[in-house]
Specification:
The protein is mostly helical. The chain has one domain: Up-down Bundle (Four Helix Bundle (Hemerythrin (Met), subunit A)). The protein is built from 8 helices and 2 strands. It has a two-stranded antiparallel ribbon. The longest helix is centred in the N-terminal third of the chain and has 25 residues. The chain is globular and about 45 Å long. The N terminus is likely disordered.
């Protein structure tokens, strides 16, 4: 009886082991992702891509007639927020680039949707240079920022934070006009992960 059990176990191992080995060869474990050369600045760039998309889509989504909308007299109009967000891109990204801000006064000089969307696109393109050129080594260089010394990447961090703050304003205005904000659109987050 012991011989029969031993023979059955041996046969089972002989038949199952090659099948398991074959399956293992067909489905190799996933390769580990290559480490990012500049993880600090790469992470900041990923955040910026999402913020940039939310700002621009908000500006494009709101109808022209609602650019003068404001919930109360104490706050900016939708268009003024877009202009302010555009202007701030120059303010913060110029610091990261080590340049003087052009001070275009977008919020004070532009009112139409076409002009404000164009100004926002130009401002974001300016900021693209700052984010795209940032490396981890450059990120840790000391600059003068907001009245003191700070790492260069602080200007980009503050730019993203400031942009998100005003995206929050735009969300409220869009919702008050029965429009879905970009970050609540189906598939938006998945789209951002793929970029």
């Amino acid at each position: 009886m012991r011989i029969a059990v031993t023979v059955l176990c041996t046969l089972l191992i002989c038949f199952v082991a090659p099948t398991g080995a074959g399956l293992a060869q067909e489905n190799p474990p996933p390769a580990a992702a290559a480490p990012t050369a500049n993880p600090l600045s790469a992470h900041q760039k990923a955040i910026y891509r999402g913020v940039k998309a939310m700002l621009l889509r908000s500006a494009e989504k709101m109808p022209e007639e609602s650019y003068a909308f404001r919930p109360t007299e104490a706050v900016r109009t939708f268009g003024q927020i877009v202009g302010h967000a555009a202007e701030s891109q120059y303010v913060f990204c110029s610091r990261a680039l080590g340049e003087k801000s052009p001070a275009l006064k977008i919020e004070q000089t532009k009112t139409s949707k076409a002009d404000l969307v164009a100004a926002l696109k130009e401002a974001l393109a300016y900021c693209d240079k700052a984010y795209d050129g940032m490396t981890d080594a450059a990120a840790t260089e000391t600059i003068k920022f907001m009245g003191g010394d700070a790492p260069r990447i602080a200007a980009l961090n503050v730019n993203s934070l400031h942009s998100v703050e005003h995206y929050g304003n735009l969300v409220v205005y869009l919702r008050m006009k029965n429009l879905v904000p970009p970050s609540s659109e189906p598939g938006f987050m998945e789209e951002m992960r793929k970029k």
